[in-house]
Model the fold of this input.
Amino acid sequence: MKKICMVGTGYVGLVSGACMADFGHEVWCVDIIEDRIAGLGRGEIPFYEPGLDTLVKKNHAANRLHFTTSLAEGMEQADVVFIAVQTPMSATGEADLTYVMQVGEQVGTLLTGYKVVVTKSTVPVGTARRLAAVIKNALPEPVDFDMASNPEFLREGSSIEDFMRPDRVVIGTESQRAADIMSRIYRPLYLLDTPIVHCDIETAELIKYASNSFLAVKISFINELATLAEQVGADIAVIAKAMGLDKRIGPKFLHAGLGFGGSCLPKDTNAIVHIGQSQDVPMRIVTAAIDVNAELPHRAFAKAQQLVPDLAGKTVALLGVAFKPNTDDIRSAASIPLTRALLAAGARINAYDPVAMPNFREVFADLNYCDSTFEAVTGADLCILVTEWNEFRQLDFEQLAKVMRERAFLDCRNVYNHKHVAGYGFRYACFGRPDSARPRGEGQ
Ligand code: NAD
Done:
């Protein structure tokens, strides 16, 4: 059993901390947001993540999971300090390391004996070395410590399963002592035969960006191909299926639609482009993936205009605003530029999302927020499926046809079959499938 200090109780810090406590370690989770820490002590989870409340409550009750705003308290007995604070995209596209470096400085002032300091946040290559220098500078007196890089690959919405049964764990270290301590933390996963990649720190740092960029490239590839499929009358869903059956390609991340969003892929693709620039190695493929992705909300808007040529004064029902299902995260969600374009065209918006509306309200205070799909579509001239939550996968088109003012449906996630929806008298558009570029007239 190890004693762990987890700095940051966001998606990554809280999930990692709770899962490590569930492995049997004693974990102190530290955050500077007092309300968040007080709420966590009462079992209140600050964001939506399936299963996390149960895991937190269970381990808190077992006295393995503690919450504090005091880094000193969190570090006091810890063998390992994980830094899991945010690394947002700066205005120029690079990773903003302010929060990470602040934690490094505080860790330095509090370090009194050997510990491993681990970056779990996604950070550019070289950050651990810079952080080590910051910590050394802040030490009141010389103390031995090691750095490590342990990037996190969990996905919001399935983060507990991702943490508990990962495809792999990456551990970058510079000493055997640190490698041994890190191995002990992940021992329960060794027992499950999880592949553990031990490497140097720079390699670990770059693995995270390489993985996320590759996923982004895969998504943008299928989306660009969807545009071509539309032009030539081919069906991207069938193309993706056939491609995915090739084991060298695999079926995941091949769904054409609104592209990638959230707190990771947009930020990490931009960051690797900057890392490349700083080393005179232009990341041309990733740059193209970013460009293709940025066009998608505008393509969706163009399709909305094809379905309803004059959107001024029309009511548009948005089904889903989260960047993907099972999360309340709207960071870099395609719903944001799409909503801006619809509002600029004079549309009124009825928005409904099972969990993400409070976050969306902080960006768009004045939309008509609804409590159900039914309320959102009632009186609407166009319905846009933006996020493929399960509850939007089985819409009752007979009811929609009755309560909508006009029958127009834009399926940004290619959930439905054109013939099925058109069968209820809807004009229908989607991405990269037959009729997706040429929505039919009503009743056809
Ligand atoms: P987040 O914004 O949800 O949470 C960060 C937390 O750190 C906040 O609660 C904040 O108050 C806290 N914090 C900031 N400064 C602090 C300080 N000095 N002391 C204590 N706490 C402090 O961020 P996140 O989504 O959990 O992401 C964290 C890192 O993990 C990022 O680098 C991100 O790229 C990476 N990552 C995120 C995901 C994901 O799905 N969200 C997945 C893999 C990796």
